[in-house]
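Regression test case RT-17, inverse folding.

Input:
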């Protein structure tokens, strides 16, 4: 961070992580050690000053380590002009030889709306194909398809405030406590103030979100449509439909009802199919049926399925039936994963959509957009959706691909095949802020993009609020904003006229103007009220929810208030949702079901959040969660390494038996990439089957098996430098405060551990201050390398996985000099006083460890308030409160 040029001292911007879209204040504090102070923006309507652990740690990700700072072609640094020429002529040549369908863009929900807009314009309007898709395909495309089927347009009806007005909140397939923590805290605070408010969680896992739930339905994976069809049938039987609303504002109930009557059965049958207790199902149905102010918030557990669109429509159906939509505190609420998945939807960043919510299949819309853009052509049919796109690269149909701000070699399903596809790609261009990712490694051309804090534009969060992201640091090296890179490539391709933007304000104005073109209420998405902002007004734009028309300059918090939907007849549509099993059921060879998802303190493929020591302390290595009895039946013990295998790939992680899972299920986090672990890219294991309507892959349901990963030794190293891991069979790395933490395992026991350790650490001086302990018969080795009594590196090895806690040893890296007592206890791995060992981190904001919390509970703390008062744990972002509650339960 030191020495980076600041362009503004105190800036209001937006968090770049999840779809909650929290407002952030970034304050660049000059001085000998320049730093950026991050806090929540109290004026932002999404978070009102709160931030979760990821937002709080944003300043830790602003360093230049690992950044891509110059354009590169085949590992050689080149000028921007050379790089732009190379990309433009490369794409131009492929288009000339093989047609526009031979090239594609794969973009990202991390891009700002302005970046997204120009990328979409270049591909669909000037190159002339719709081969532009986005990693948002992987998280919310099913919600988009469901909205279009039910509402006539991709519209999220509610605002976050509705969550505080609801009497019943149903969270479906959403670990809100970890994945949208600030939203979860808003819900919990509302419940504390109004205890009559109920929370139901529908999720196969007992996640931290369930800790505050009045009811948890651990539904069998993939059976949500049965549950919701059952609810529709039950509501009809009980006479709880809002007939007036249905008659006045909807159509299609009969067809939906017919499917439900033929497939749902009674509560008993539903419960059996979903693997639930009938009484619990009935309780949920009763609460839903008798609570007008009900919100159903759904997320990836619904969307990431081969029937994700039907799942979402089955949820929307019950809201239409009861008229629970368009009024305060009610409605179906899709919570998006990424900071600007919504912005991407607005500009048409998906391969099957057109800009400004117009339809690619509609010739009038196509002509309208082409005329507005004054473009030489317009894509005439939908392009390739993410999974199809990489398959087309593999097959050689797509020969030129530009990936912007995404890491598909980690995040895509069947990710090894994606890697193979990219290796085959004739021209692979990657623009990214990081130099070395699993994807940039394969690129012929790497273009340095500006990172968060350096770029300006807008993002749209889950409740349609458009917020500004503002730069507070100058871009380092030759890094440039994505919109600039795209416009420059367009100019080099001869399309300069359509891309003569001076900055993001110009682009936003064009985007807003397009949304208002031929839009007298025809499309709900409308930013015409923002089309004439001056640059200064754009700079000072306050968060506001679209649509923003001339007559609604402050935006629109809630949609469908008058029961009018976006179809030309104004009616919402019931969609018949015929339940079906996931595409691949488990079998004898693969008897378990793999589910993937997020953890609290990491983001996507860890390229940024993996740099934060406080975030990496929470769950520092890839893990595999399994039901304790399943672990027992497969002969596996918690804490040991296991291999998970599917028909598509395999990974290795540390076994946990958290008790969160149903029998037969496996959970593996989605984050680890090859820079942080040798063998933990879970995307490689995921079935690439997709939902037929949305093209979204089935990340939540891949048949899998688990087996021991047999090794001869386990170990860990803490080191100020990088460890040479060539000789180990498995490793995982986590960033610490002034050190790297490595978890290690090997199949071969070296003859001389001391020599091997020195080699791994790169210690060449024969007189290095080296202390070690070796028990060759017991297979134990412990070594420490010191420099002037300062610890440089430690390595602990044992035949068993139960090595000493890393917490106290890690703290020694903060000391300039070890005391004699530290030195004496160093190789024991434990401090002289057990109280000095904090244990693994639970509260990332204040670095409070599990053992400290357990001691406080043993010492009399009875609730989270008392823990907060004594330790500060849980008093900043609140993301750890569910874990504090779990520890309190264990301690009672
Ligand atoms: Fe960022 Fe956390 Fe807010 Fe999401 S909830 S936007 S990750 S601070």
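Golden output:
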């Amino acid at each position: 961070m030191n020495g980076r040029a600041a362009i503004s001292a105190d800036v209001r911007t937006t968090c770049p992580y999840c779809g909650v879209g929290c407002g952030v204040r970034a304050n660049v504090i000059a001085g000998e050690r320049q730093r950026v102070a991050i806090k929540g923006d109290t004026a932002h309507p999404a978070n009102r000053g709160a931030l979760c652990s990821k937002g709080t740690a944003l300043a830790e990700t602003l360093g230049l380590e690992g950044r891509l700072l110059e354009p590169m072609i085949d590992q050689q640094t080149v000028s921007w002009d050379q790089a732009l020429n190379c990309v433009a002529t490369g794409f131009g040549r492929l288009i000339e030889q093989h047609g526009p369908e031979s090239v594609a863009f794969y973009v990202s929900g991390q891009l700002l709306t302005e970046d997204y807009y120009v990328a979409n314009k270049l591909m669909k309007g000037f190159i002339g194909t719709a081969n532009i898709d986005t990693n948002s395909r992987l998280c919310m495309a099913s919600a988009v398809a469901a909205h279009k089927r039910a509402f006539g347009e991709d519209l999220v009806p509610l605002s976050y405030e509705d969550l505080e007005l609801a009497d019943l909140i149903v969270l479906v397939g959403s670990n809100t406590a970890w994945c949208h923590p600030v939203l979860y805290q808003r819900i919990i605070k509302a419940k504390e103030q109004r205890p009559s408010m109920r929370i139901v969680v529908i999720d196969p896992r007992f996640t931290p979100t369930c800790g505050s739930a009045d009811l948890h339905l651990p539904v069998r994976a993939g059976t949500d449509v049965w549950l919701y069809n059952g609810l529709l049938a039950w509501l009809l039987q009980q006479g709880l439909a809002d007939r007036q609303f249905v008659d006045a504002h909807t159509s299609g109930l009969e067809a939906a009802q017919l499917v439900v009557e033929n497939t749902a059965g009674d509560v008993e049958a539903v419960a059996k199919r979903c693997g639930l207790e009938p009484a619990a199902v009935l309780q949920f149905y009763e609460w839903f049926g008798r609570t007008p102010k009900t919100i159903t918030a759904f997320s990836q557990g619904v969307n990431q399925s081969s029937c994700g669109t039907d799942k979402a429509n089955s949820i929307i159906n019950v809201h239409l039936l009861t008229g629970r939509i368009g009024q305060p505190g009610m409605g179906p609420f899709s919570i998006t994963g990424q900071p600007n998945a919504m912005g991407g939807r607005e500009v048409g960043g998906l391969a099957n959509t057109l800009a400004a919510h117009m339809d690619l299949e509609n010739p009038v819309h196509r002509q309208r957009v082409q005329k507005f853009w004054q473009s030489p052509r317009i894509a005439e049919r939908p392009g390739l959706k993410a999974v199809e796109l990489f398959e087309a690269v593999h097959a050689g149909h797509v020969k030129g691909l530009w990936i912007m701000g995404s890491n598909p070699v980690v995040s895509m399903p069947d990710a090894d095949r994606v890697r193979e596809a990219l290796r085959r790609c004739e021209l692979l261009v990657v623009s990214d802020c990081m130099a070395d990712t699993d994807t940039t490694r394969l690129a012929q051309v790497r273009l340095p993009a500006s990172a968060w804090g350096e770029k300006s534009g807008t993002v749209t969060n889950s409740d349609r609020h458009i917020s500004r992201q503002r730069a507070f640091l100058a871009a380092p090296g030759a890094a440039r904003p994505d919109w600039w890179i795209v416009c420059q490539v367009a100019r080099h391709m001869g399309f300069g006229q359509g891309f003569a933007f001076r900055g993001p304000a110009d682009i936003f104005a064009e985007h807003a103007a397009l949304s208002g073109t031929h839009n007298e209420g025809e499309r709900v998405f409308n930013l015409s009220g923002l089309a004439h902002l001056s640059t200064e007004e754009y700079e000072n734009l306050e968060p506001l929810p679209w649509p923003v028309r001339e007559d609604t300059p402050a935006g629109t918090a809630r949609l469908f208030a008058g029961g009018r939907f976006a179809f030309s007849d104004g009616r919402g549509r019931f969609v018949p949702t015929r339940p079906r099993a996931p595409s691949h059921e488990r079998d004898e060879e693969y008897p378990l079901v793999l589910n993937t998802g997020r953890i609290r303190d990491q983001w996507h493929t860890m390229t940024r959040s993996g740099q934060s020591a406080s975030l990496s302390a929470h769950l520092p290595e890839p893990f595999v969660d399994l039901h304790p009895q399943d672990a027992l039946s497969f002969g596996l013990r918690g804490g040991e390494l296991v291999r998970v295998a599917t028909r598509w790939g395999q990974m290795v992680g540390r076994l946990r038996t958290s008790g969160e899972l149903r029998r037969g299920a496996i959970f593996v986090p989605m984050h680890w990439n090859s820079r942080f672990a040798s063998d933990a890219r879970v995307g490689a294991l995921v079935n690439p089957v997709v939902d037929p309507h949305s093209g979204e892959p089935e990340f939540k349901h891949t048949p899998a098996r688990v087996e021991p990963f047999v090794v001869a030794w386990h170990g860990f190293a803490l080191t100020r430098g990088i460890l040479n891991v060539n000789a180990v069979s498995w490793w995982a790395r986590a960033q610490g405060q002034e050190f790297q933490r490595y978890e290690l395992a090997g199949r071969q026991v070296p003859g001389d551990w001391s020599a091997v350790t020195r080699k791994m650490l790169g210690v060449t001086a024969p007189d290095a201050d080296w202390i070690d302990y070796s028990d060759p018969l017991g297979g134990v080795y412990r070594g420490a390398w010191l420099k002037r009594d300062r610890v440089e590196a430690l390595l602990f090895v044992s035949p068993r996985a139960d090595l000493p806690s890393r917490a106290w040893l890690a703290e020694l890296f903060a000391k300039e000099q070890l005391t004699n007592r530290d030195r004496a206890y160093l190789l024991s791995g434990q401090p002289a006083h057990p109280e000095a060992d904090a244990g693994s981190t639970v509260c990332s904001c204040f670095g409070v460890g599990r053992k400290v919390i357990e001691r406080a509970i043993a010492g009399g703390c009875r609730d989270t308030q008392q823990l907060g008062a004594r330790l500060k744990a849980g008093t900043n972002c609140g993301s750890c409160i569910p874990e504090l509650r779990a520890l309190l339960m264990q301690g009672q």
